Amino acid sequence: PYQYSNEPRHRFMQMATNIAPASGQAFMLGRRLHHTNFKNGSHSEQPNPGYPEQAGKVGPGYVARSCIACHVNNGRALPPKINKPMRQSVVKVGADMIGTPHPTLGNSLQSASIDGDPETVMQVRDYSTIPGTYADGTPYVLRKPRYAFTGITPRHYSVRLSPQLVGLGLLEAIDEKTVIANADPSDENQDGISGRIQVVIDPETGERRLGRFGYKAGQASVRLQVASALNHDMGVTTTVFPRLDGETTSGKPELANKELTQLTRYIATLGVSARRNLHDKEALAGEKLFLKAGCTKCHTTRFTTSPYHPFAELR
Known about the structure:
Helix content: 10-25%
Strand content: 15-25%
Structural class: alpha+beta
Largest sheet: 2 strands, antiparallel
Number of strands: 8
């Protein structure tokens, strides 16, 4: 399938081209939640009607008021301008190098607050430059951000820009055994690549699962990743994570399981566009270099998804 629509800004916002009619409605209901502002219930695309039932759920601390605010057009976020707050990033914080929750900030930095007094705000103060030269003599310059905090300054932190959302359902549909077989933690085949799996505890079942989602593979499924983002990034609780980041007690879940399922269905069945520049000489030369350099040792070119995934579109 190929996206022939002349709407490049919306390429990551289409439903899977093989979606079943029965799944289309669930996709659209999830999309509505994805575009909903959980503070006032408004829809990001006007004049679509609001969703007043979801108003007042954001916070007390948060990064964004809606999913689409960070994942703009479902694509990857960009860093902010100099001295502007990081509103489209996840900033993980810890009390130590192994990620013990910060005594005040918890696991993540919430840079906004419903009362206007956030815990702390992180900004890109400026960039340091790192010059270098390629093997053929071509010079290059890398930029490294230097951060500043307004308020509490955590000693240990990790900044992660919001990633694009397309393809997550397909990644989830790959059998765990297939992923584990590619790990090779001790580099037994001596190709210089030592992949390691992340094992996490499923908060709903207590089972040990393969981590797949997030920059550190901290969540085992799309559902858990969505619930985690609702909690840490918007301050919205679910039955999966009923206790807000940094809090010690649980509250009544704000988003119902039915709505969490709709939002999960939407993210999982977003359409993946076909490859572009199929006949471009420079792109084809890049493909050869990609293979020759061994990039496919990690970025595997082909997988077959499991026949048992709950969503037929992904099997």
